[in-house]
Hints:
The chain is mainly beta. Helix content is 13%, strand content 37%.
Amino acid sequence: MHELTIDLSEIRDEGITRHVVVTGVTLGIADPGFEIAQPIDLTCQLFKVNRDVVVQGTLDTVLRLTCSRCAEEFLLPLRVPVEAVYFPAHDTAPERQETLEEGTADMFSYTEHVIDLAEMVHDKLFLAVPLQPRCTLECKGLCPQCGSNWNIATCQCVQEALGSPFQRLKGLRL
Length: 174
């Protein structure tokens, strides 16, 4: 068993707290879109509620991303809230599924009295990566003519003013 695997017998009535530091390699993350620049730090509390296990905590790491505007690499610190419910895999009655789906927590199943937090950490991390990462909110991007980074220097290229694609519709009379 690895550090993200927890046996249900370890979770006492008052719950337990876990602090785990893992690398992206441990989780099998090899995504070309980003690199995990700092180990993933997971701090969470686990509580039993009947046969379910509730997990609450935070996930901290730093990602190395490429800006979608200027194509420069930058570091993005992430702090992601974690909230999940683990339920027995054999407990899949339709009314039970509806009850579980009504909550705001993510849902995961467990088998053989063992909970594996790796899938949850993996999912939370991937969902936190921005679709169009920007190095700063004010990123100016690249010149479409010469490709120079407008955050560093201005170029002498003449920029054509792009009109609105709806400009022709203004003259339309109905």
